[in-house]
Amino acid sequence: MQEFVKILIQEILAVITKSSKLFLELLKVLLPVSILVKVLSEIGFVSILGTWLMPVMNLVGLPGEMGLVWATGLISSPYAGIFAYIAISETVPLTIAQVTVLSTMMLIAHNMIIEVSIGKKIGVSIRYQVLLRVLAAFVFGILLSQFYQRLNLLNSLPLSIWAKEPSSTSLFVWITSTLKNYLTIYLVMTGLIGLMRMMEKLHLLEKMYTLSEPILNFFGMSKKAAPIAIIGMTLGLAVGGGLIIDEAKSGNLSRKDIFLVLTSMCLLHSVIEDTIIMATIGADLSGILFARLLFSFIVFYGISRSKFIQKIFFYETPLLTESPVL
Q1: Which of 45, 94, 152, 209 has the highest Cβ tally under 10 A?
Q2: Domain boundaries, the chain
Q3: What is the pLDDT of residue 316?
């Protein structure tokens, strides 16, 4: 019993240590985003931006103001996008359907500066990655929005665990609300890291990899490439991308494998963590998980079978290999 308690305490401390380090890194992004959105709201720029972006965002069934939220997520993390959403949603409320559409778009296309650079390191063009993710996010947003509208689904207001942006103009009230949301992010991150660690200890991730591998083989990946793609889909593009870079250096993967693995992760990655994050703002699983999985696999299947797309976008920069990869 004492041994079990000792191990449990060690695991808890490891989770807290990791989540604290990640949170401090994330805070470097969240703090300026919080201040910027607050300033833009106070000077009325959010409303002006909403007017400018209305024709574009209306295509996906969203008010123009949500363009700022998506743009924030595009260049930064989903957490930053959530913070921008919280700041705006008090004056521009969304239905569950709209939150779900916005969330799925951010899940497909986010943190582009960092994540695209990973693909560039292994030789996949920036043009391809940006075009794929932004276009996929927008097309999926249109399809999902039309689906919910035509079937008249999810029209109620979403439930969220986040503190709403206060209507009071008091700076103290805003700071208090923002700090509450920072704490919420820290707790969510800690819980997610603990969940992933528990799944790893129980070998649940290995079982997921085993079950998913035949599916990815069907899409044309080799047996060596499929596990890397699955890891990226579950744990994130940064982790999966690191593995691809390592394999590219060693020459264990073909050019086609690397292209397909990165394509799969561009469309779908961090499926466990990101899905839970977006559920906290009230997004529905029908969109952020099930429809996203279906859409991603359909698009990926089309790309994996299209020699034309592969010919256009195959490796515009050299691979990170010392010898050619066939």
Answers
A1: 94
A2: 2-157+166-313
A3: 46
